[in-house]
Specification:
The protein is an alpha+beta fold. 21% of the residues lie in helices and 32% in strands.
C-alpha cells in the first residue's frame, strides 16, 4: 500500500510536576523528550510516544495508586525489551530514589524458558511503570503463544 505510515503506540498520563517528570523520564530513565510546555512534556519512551499532561489537583487522588501487588495489576503501562536493555535500565536505577512496587529489579523464573526481568515502579505522579526483559529476542513467554516482537 503506497503512502502507508508506520504507527507507534501513544500513551498519555497525568503528572503533577513537569520538572519532576522531566527528571524521572529524562534523567533517570534516559528517555529523550520532545515537545515541552508549561502543561505538557512528551518523550520517546523506548520507541513509544509518551505524553505527560499536567493534571489538576482534582485528579491527583484518582491517578495515584497504592504500591501493593493488587493495585499495580489494575493500571500500569510499560515496555518489553531484550534482557541486555533491561539490565541497562536496572543499572541506571541503582542508587536512585525510585519507589519500586513490591521489590527492586528482579529476574523471575531464572534458568527456565519463562525467565524474565521485572521492574515495577512508580513515577513521581504515582503512575505505575513496568519494564519486562526477555533473554530470547522477541519471545514473550509460552503463556502468550508464539507472539514475536519485531524491532523497527
Amino acid at each position: 500500500m503506497q503512502g502507508r505510515t508506520r504507527s507507534i503506540g501513544h500513551i498519555a498520563i497525568p503528572v503533577w510536576s513537569i520538572d519532576d517528570t522531566r527528571r524521572f523520564y529524562g534523567d533517570v530513565l534516559g528517555c529523550p523528550h520532545g515537545r515541552l510546555s508549561e502543561t505538557m512534556i512528551d518523550f520517546n519512551f523506548f520507541g513509544q510516544h509518551l505524553v505527560c499532561h499536567l493534571a489538576s489537583e482534582r485528579l491527583r487522588g484518582e491517578a495515584a495508586i497504592d504500591a501493593t501487588y493488587n493495585e499495580r495489576l489494575s493500571r500500569h503501562f510499560g515496555v518489553i525489551v531484550e534482557m541486555a536493555e533491561w539490565k541497562r535500565i536496572a543499572g541506571r536505577l541503582e542508587g536512585r530514589d525510585v519507589e519500586y512496587v513490591n521489590h527492586p529489579p528482579k529476574i523471575l523464573h531464572e534458568g527456565t524458558e519463562q525467565e524474565e526481568g521485572l521492574i515495577f515502579m512508580l513515577d513521581p505522579a504515582r503512575n505505575a511503570v513496568e519494564f519486562k526483559g526477555f533473554d530470547v529476542p522477541g519471545r514473550l513467554s509460552k503463556a502468550l503463544g508464539e507472539i514475536e516482537i519485531r524491532a523497527t
